[in-house]
Write a structure and sequence with these properties.
The chain is of the alpha+beta class and 159 residues long. It has a single domain (8-154), classed as Sandwich (Jelly Rolls). Helices cover 14% and strands 31% of the residues. It contains two helices and eight strands. It has helices at residues 8-20, 145-154; strands spanning 25-29, 38-45, 63-69, 72-77, 83-89, 98-100, 105-110, 115-122. Strands 1-2-8-3-6 form a five-stranded antiparallel β-sheet. Strands 5-4-7 form a three-stranded antiparallel β-sheet, covered by helices on one side. The protein starts with 7 loop residues before the first helix and ends in a 5-residue tail after the last helix.
Length: 159
């Protein structure tokens, strides 16, 4: 059997795994090594998963997210944490992807259970620098995460 095809069973496995782990996210790398020049991965994310606002300072590290299932709330911030734009990303919403240039602070929230997307960005993987994290937002595991996640989701209450 070939590993060339990506199908619903792979997405189902990713969703089940995401629902069973504390971060409520799981991924399946399509690239073989973290040193490869292009990173492509499938990511399953549940609504209570927190993705801290961040940017990629390397000018070669733009990021593209395209949902395969579910709905994503995409957020863009200025360097001080002011929300500049929030948009629902889902083919049926008329917005099929989220392309973030290097240096732009952003985050996502899952707006429905079972959300899966493909993420594409340049490799190799580099541990984020302190300046790449939105200092106005709590880090994963810190007090205030639930409140900040609720604020981010609140940008989509009418969506």
């Amino acid at each position: 059997m070939s590993n060339c095809f990506l199908d619903a069973s792979l997405l189902d496995e990713l969703v089940a795994k995401a629902r069973s782990v504390p971060r409520l996210r799981s991924h399946h790398n399509l690239h073989l090594e973290s040193t490869e020049p292009a990173h492509r991965l499938l990511v399953a994310i549940e609504p209570d998963s927190y993705v801290r606002p961040h940017c990629h300072l390397d000018p070669n590290k733009s990021e593209t997210i395209i949902p395969l299932r579910g709905r994503i709330g995409a957020l863009v911030f200025d360097g001080e944490g002011k929300l500049l734009e929030a948009r629902v990303i889902a083919p049926e919403a008329g917005s099929f992807g989220f392309h973030v240039p290097a240096g732009v602070f952003h985050s996502i929230v899952a707006l429905e259970s079972g959300t899966v997307f493909i993420e594409i960005k340049a490799g190799p993987y580099a541990v984020p620098l302190p300046a790449e994290w939105g200092q106005w937002a709590p880090a994963e595991g810190e007090p205030g995460v639930a409140g900040y996640l609720a604020e981010m989701k609140g940008a989509f209450t009418a969506a």
